[in-house]
Structure formats: C-alpha cells, structure tokens
Amino acid sequence: xxxxxxxxxxxxxxxxxxxxxxxxxxxxxxxxxxxxxxxxxxxxxxxxxxxxxxxxxxxxxxxxxxxxxxxxxxxxxxxxxxxxxxxxxxxxxxxxxxxxxxxxxxxxxxxxxxxxxxxxxxxxxxxxxxxxxxxxxxxxxxxxxxxxxxxxxxxxxxxxxxxxxxxxxxxxxxxxxxxxxxxxxxxxxxxx
Length: 192
Fold this sequence. Notes:
With 192 residues, the protein is of the alpha+beta class. The protein has five helices and seven strands, in the order αβααββββββαα. It has a seven-stranded antiparallel beta sheet.
C-alpha cells in the first residue's frame, strides 16, 4: 500500500515538473511582446473618468487585487510614481509617464524584474453623452512560462478586461455615494 501511494506521489510530482518544463519550452518560442487594445463606453464624462484614474490613492477601493498604494514621489517630468501592493506579497512600481489633460494618460511599469511589464496608454473621448476610454496595453513578458500562461491559460486580454470592469465598479460606487448623500440631505431637510 505504501509503495502504491509513493508511486502515485511520484507520478503527480513528475507530471507537474514535466508540465512546467513543457510550458517553459513552448513559452520560449512565443513572442515576448504584444499589444492589447480595447475601448469601453461609460455613463460618465471624460473628466470623471480622468479624475478616477488620476486618484491613485483610491485604487484599493476599486482596482481588483490592489491591497494598498504607497506614493513614492515624482519622476523627472514631475509626474507621480507609486507602488501597488497586491496579495501574496507581490508589488509593482508605476509612474505616469505622460499626461495630456482629458486626452491621453500613459502609465508605465517601473519594476524591472516582473513577469509582465509594459505601458498602458489610456485615451479619453466622448460620444452621445458617454465617456469612452480607448486603452492600449503594450505588454512585455520576459519569463517564457508566463508567456505560455498568457497565451494558453489566462487570456492575454485578462488584465485589461479586469481594469475596465473595475473602473465600471468604481463609477457605480461613486453614484451610490452620491445617491446616499442626496437621501441623507433629504431626510435632514424633512427633519427641520
């Protein structure tokens, strides 16, 4: 019975090791750079969207996985740099590398040794009363295993999709706070 259990454990461990080696080998043949481009309309003005994205200290309230933010200062262009802390002791450094008010915002990953790095370019526009975000994520994946995961396991659009959905969640939070404040003001007025 012990031999059977040991054999089973050996097979599981070897399968895991061989799977990792195969994924790594396939990943070495995949391109290390690609671009994800998406657009999404929101029930908000470009100014509201701009304000939310510039307010990095509020990111933990709406960005999926962000536990806390540490503002690091400003870069040589005078733009903010910060560190985002995620679960499992992971963190990344970022900076606004370019800001053109209500037109374009560039957010760059500063940490050199991360599995997925690059720059996110956010453009703002408006159509029929809706704010539109055009997002391009220029991705660099240095680790072949992570390239394999991005291609075959986790959709390469995953991080952009999560970002856009999280932004929608933040807009709903803000609207709820606004409605709650109106309700509270109405109750206070009725009590007088």
